[in-house]
Structures are given as structure tokens and as C-alpha cells.
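We include the pair:
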Amino acid sequence: MAAGERQCRDYLQRHRIPELFHRLGALLLYHRPERPREFLIQALERVKAGKRGEGEYPYLMDEANLAAMFELLDVVGQGHITPAQYREALKTLGLSAEDLQRGDDVNITLDVFKEEV
């Protein structure tokens, strides 16, 4: 890989651009607005306001969706999932698992799952 290409990839990763595009694409496909460009602009404005603490981020899933996903992961009904399952769920949702500070011996409960996802 050339140095210029590596710098470009590093830039994209550092600013989490692929995750942003993935989330915007998911929002767009989920809502299917009549005016997609305006919808995307509004979504980016909500992200910006959320980062400033002036509003909430645009979410694709509500708590009921998260509970259903957790139940699919917790197939035997233990009330928790493993960190490996948690990381895979984050990946499936297009979220980054790089910043997780959990050890592999700490189980994830539904409350933790809903709060963090």
C-alpha cells in the first residue's frame, strides 16, 4: 500500500468516517424519506447537536428493538451475553467496538446493552 493511500485510510479511521456513512445509509434505508438529501442534512445536524450536548443523536433502533436483539443473543435466557457476543452485535449494527474497556470475563446485561448501544 502506498504512503498516500495509508494516510487516507488513517484519516478516515481516525475520524470514524466509514461508521458515519454506514449509520447515515442505515437511517436513509430505514426511513426512506421523499427528500433524501434534506433528510441526511437534518441527520448530520442532529449528530452535531448531540455532540454539543444540545440534543440526541439520530437513532435507528428504539429500546424495544434493542431488547429483541439482546434476546436473540441470549438464547438460553441467562440474562447476560458475553463480551464476544456484544462486540459482534456492535459490528452488526455498524458501531465501533474498538473503545470497549471490558474484559472477556465481564458479562453484559440487558441494561448495559441498551445503555451503551
